[in-house]
Design a protein that fits this description.
It contains 3 helices and no strands. The protein is mainly alpha-helical. The protein starts with a helix and ends in an 8-residue tail after the last helix.
Amino acid sequence: MAAILTFIGSFAGKIFADKVVGWIALKALLVFLFITVVPLVLNNFLYDIIKIMMDFASGQAAGATALNGNMSFTGFAAWLIECFRLPEAFSLLISALVLRLVLSMIPFVRLVG
């Protein structure tokens, strides 16, 4: 009777040990994949998506008529613009307007004001 119980115990221990070793191996494999492979794949995928979008945008911009938004000021006007820091102010204003536009496009964001 003791031999049968010993056999059943060793059999259960062997199954349990195999399951634990398999679980540890699976966790090690998943950690390896999520630390090394997944970020590389996502980085390459996002890079390709951004490259496609930038190629499309540059292709669309090349077909449009050229609009030059650069302005050059000299003398007193340039001094006043530099004193009042108008380029930085316009940059901040345009950034705020674009941020508000982007936030208004998100369906679950409520803008007050």
